[in-house]
């Protein structure tokens, strides 16, 4: 989506009007050329200029300045205001201006619009549709024409218009958010739609992008500092530097690690704390401790382990196993766990997930689900995969999102321990069903399996147990392969 | 001595562990007198804004925090509760920083969870020795949408840039978890301890 910062000109100065009212203007700069250059330097993909004097008069007033700006910046410039004949269009387009905007004239003379498009191309002629109280407004917004929006859309289509700017005049300069429904209306009608008026912050940019807008014009928001050009451009591009995570999983029993005993460098192979520190030093992004045999009596041991681990490593870790009360979650978090993993209890008592999420926040509630392929879908299992249920695993994932889960740990009983790769289809089905992070589990047998799961699904993290415990593949080797293939991980 | 504020919602064990590793003396307390007398204060964060603010109010800490004159570090929810308000549970904040916290739009996955790059746009002593674009661990669903430009000390991109750190006089706050962010996180805590 194009981010187009706006420069409105009156008497050669850069101004903003409030709701199109010429008597409510603020002067922002007496040097519009410098303003344009600063926008270009901030990385905007174009600049939107309106000659407000011309819009009022009906013929260009500040055209020399506009052409000077267009010739001095290295991004496309579009100009609107007082463009009502082909000679004016030609003068701008032949002198470095990328696109001209026709507003008033489109209402009064659609033959002119058709000719302009025929001669200069639909990609260089933008029709500005100013809307005030549900009707088309013209001539510097001072007059309301009688044309309805639907009638305008029909007229634009008949004239082979491709690009439109829709401005909700009641929003313009108000910093109250853009008019998304009018944007959607023009997008649905098939126009490349640029929205103006009220665009205030990054959330507006994202919303406009969702509406399918072709561009967003930002005026007062930039001058008043509610958004910067660079931030708007970043929002439009949806840039994120969030990394994929590699998570070793340690099975513990009464506070000691029961798997992962093949590290020769360990003095005490079952020492969970030392193993955690080793993984942390080797580049693990996070750790998961699962006490598969946890019972009420062993809670104290688990808590002690968590406290010891928290004192030694400073990467996040999740603890799971036997959690069945808000008090047990509190104890684990208090001891230093960052998240808790809930499995069987989330199937038996989904309401507990809601309570836990409400009490401690969604970010620390991980739902671990066990799935096994059954015909075209996946059946949900409980008790560490020992008991089947009649529930669908993907439907359970969706339900858990509703109940306030912050993350899903997806285990495949078909792949568990098989070392033949993650269950790509299951993981993608879950990712498609929920909007929270998903951790892939079960099946990692090689570094290539991690590459495959990150390349072919939208999972956020992948877990390895045996593969790391027996030092078959190092975390570093996995990360090197991912980095070499363009998947961003923490080095 | 650094006081870690206990409001039964923070991940206190992790902060204590990190400070202990650095050899920084600290204690956990909810006692206003001890908090006001400490050399520095850490306001850890995890949990829900609503229940956290209720706990702060019932213990009287809500009125005490703004009076603290020693170096103060808010972490995650500890940042959000220092703004004017957050959408989470429609909670009013302590208003140390301008701006409101909003829920992340469903553009990317929410919560924003994992390691993300932090752009430091200031030469804050808190970030001394930490290179720009270092990765820190984040886990949150709400973000501070805007604040007075002079107070924003770092930003991070998650679909769009949001505020990763704020500073106003003795109050500093970070949206990420330094206590969970490996070596650079420890460095940040060390820098904070040096200010106290």
List the helices and strands and how they pair.
The complex is a heterodimer of chains A (491) and B (196).
Chain A: E1 2-10, E2 13-18, E3 21-29, H1 32-41, E4 47-51, H2 52-57, H3 63-72, E5 77-80, H4 86-93, E6 99-102, H5 104-108, H6 110-120, E7 125-132, E8 135-138, E9 143-148, H7 149-158, E10 163-168, H8 180-188, E11 192-196, H9 202-211, E12 215-218, H10 220-224, H11 229-237, E13 239-240, E14 245-253, E15 256-257, H12 272-281, E16 287-291, H13 299-312, E17 317-320, H14 326-335, E18 339-342, H15 344-348, H16 350-360, E19 365-374, E20 377-382, E21 387-392, H17 393-402, E22 407-412, H18 424-433, E23 438-440, H19 447-456, E24 461-464, H20 466-469, H21 475-484
Helix pairs in contact in A: 1-3, 4-6, 9-11, 12-13, 13-14, 17-18, 19-21
Chain B: E1 2-5, H1 12-21, E2 26-29, H2 32-37, E3 40-43, H3 49-58, H4 61-64, E4 72-75, H5 77-80, E5 85-86, E6 91-92, E7 100-103, E8 112-120, E9 134-140, E10 142-144, E11 152-159, E12 161-168, E13 171-174, H6 182-195
